[in-house]
Amino acid sequence: MKYLILIFGILVSLSLSAQDCTPELLLQKPGTWKAGQQGSIHGVSAADLAAEKAVLAAIHKLVNTNYHPKGCQVVYSTSYGKYPNAGDVWIADPYNYTMYILPFLCDNKSADKSKYTVAISSATNVTITVNEISSLNTLFAATTQADDYRGYLKLKQRPQKKDGYFYMGEEIVGDSQEENKTVEYRWLITYGDTLPFSYINRREYLQIQQKRLEKSIKESPGQKGYFQKYLDNISDYLTKPDSELSKDAIGMWNDEERFNGFVNEGTKGSFIAVKPNTEYYNKKLPKSSSQFFTVIYKLTQNDPVFEANISAIKEALDFAKLKNMLGK
User: Fold this and answer.
1) N or C: more exposed end of the chain, with fewer CB within 10 A?
2) 189: helix, strand or coil
């Protein structure tokens, strides 16, 4: 009987020891903040850089004051500056602030089962970009270069107004077959009901494609027969009434240097053609001013640490306060 009691006690002890480190228990531990490696700085004047750092410092304070990490370390970083050949006339600089959620992990190398380490990376993070929208390609607060390869920008989804802000949609990133899928949720914060881009209609889109195909024929005359059928498709479509040609251009990602027709919005593999709307901006402001924000939540699902911390960041990141920072 004594032996049975002893064995039972050992089993209970081992069970309790094993439970000293689980994701649920680690989630109860206070988290930490850590300044990460800061990103590149290029094409920014000293005066603008100082002002941009002040904007990102205000964003950090907004989150840091109202959000206290649990079961993780939050590593934050920044970057500033224009991308080479990304725009022609720049109205405002792009810059961003990112928080990486690195969960605490059980330290299996330690005999003390309450010990833990910090993950070196994760797919869960929050990025706040200023004057920049990333979709199938990136829109900046700048005019498109005259020799731009594409001649337009692409959106996967049309923004929807929700609670005073624009919801840019969600999408699974990485392997969609994984049990713990990583999903991105995007929001756009702008001046009122306006957008920093406008939709390209079918006529304008076809004229852009026409020029691209004519250039392709000039550069590869041996392929004229291949390209000509798509030019003919464009010519035929341009004879349609204005009611048809004035509709927004929605194409397929693999049909850009050809033309087989437009598709319905929401078709898998489709995009909405847009261009920068320079009338959106207050051009009297310095390039450092925030004229719109994009907020991107990237969450690996079915993980209690990730879900709890992203939920807490959402509560802390007051969109109304971000909106009040626009144009300042």
Assistant:
1) N
2) strand
